[in-house]
Amino acid sequence: MHSSPMTSTNIVYATAKPFHHSVLVPKVECFRTPQTNPQGTDDEIELVLRVTSPENFTSTSDFPVVVIIHGGSYVGGSFDEPWLNGHNLPGIVTVSVEYRTGIAGFAQLHDESTFRGVADCQLALDWVQKHIEDFGGDPTNVTLMGQSAGAGIALWLARKDHFKGAFRRLLALSPAFPRTPFRRRKHILRRSLGTPITRKHLAALTYEQLAKGQRRFQRQIPFDLAFGPAPFEPAELADIPIVLSCTREEMFLWENNPLVPKWLLKRMFGVRSSWRAHGPFLGSLITDAAIRRFVLHAADSRPHNTWVMELRGSAEQPVYHCSDIPWVLNNTELLPAGIKEVIYNPDADTASVVHTIARVFFEGTLPSWPEYGEEKIGMAINYADSAVLESDFFAHLRPHLR
User: Fold this and answer.
1) Predicted TM-score of the model (pTM)
2) Is the dihedral of CA 148, 150, 155, 159 positive or negative?
3) pLDDT-based confidence at 7, cuts 50/70/90?
């Protein structure tokens, strides 16, 4: 029995040859020191995760489990980011997952039906099913949580063709997907790298060549996510409870507009000419086209067993993309200074409302407000004010999305 929260980090859950799908490691190998500095691109990759268990856990505690998939636009981010810390969730086991990003995880090859980065996360869920009891967790009571790109992966794993029953419910915070599938961009990556997109040719490149080619590729796709699973078809989601969340000011940190006509930007982001900004033009455009679009489409496509909430800030205190992560996990005071999205002294009532909704869901209780349904009901959480139910608060957005 342990008297305080215990974190086990750098647990090796899987290994993979470069540009191959990963495989689970045997239990006896989970706790070896991971290889942190492979010598070349041919070296085996080791994928790790972090588990935080509540105080006084035993192997028979059967605490609820939350598996967290980090964001980072499918090209960055980390499983050990400070705002994914689960120390302040008494009675809940948290698992934060590393997965391959960028070319390594999402440059889909001709013989692949899924994405290596997504498959990595599926293996982490398989690992949880096999081993989480050793950390006090209940493998039959797992919530999958993701934010941004992580929410995109979580929703992708909830597709009927991927869902294996390894989690019972899903919390998707500000989900993001590419609007264009990789197969339609493969020629751009080929040109950026100067080599065919095959395992043999990719593995022959150095880290520096891959990184340089990836940067060149991303620069040629400035108005969309360059990597990630697509196209997202929410009608394919399995029938499990899903809470979808976004903020109204997701990307308002983007205040400077590029030297591109606004009408052309609208076309590039896939919105109609009738669309109007509700804040900084580019920030509003990214918010609606890259985040809220997917919350709206997912809820409209499967209105039952789905709950929607939107966090709304003000001109004085916007609620940016990622602002809600510390509220969900109740860890704002644990975060280092200097994270521009974080509200370091959040309104206590707002943070408590968000945390309570998440915590109750993690424990296995459905949200207290009605599902989205045919009336398109959602919970609007107004920062430092009220939380109110509204009918179809995306009505103003729906006609303007292509």
Assistant:
1) 0.95
2) positive
3) confident
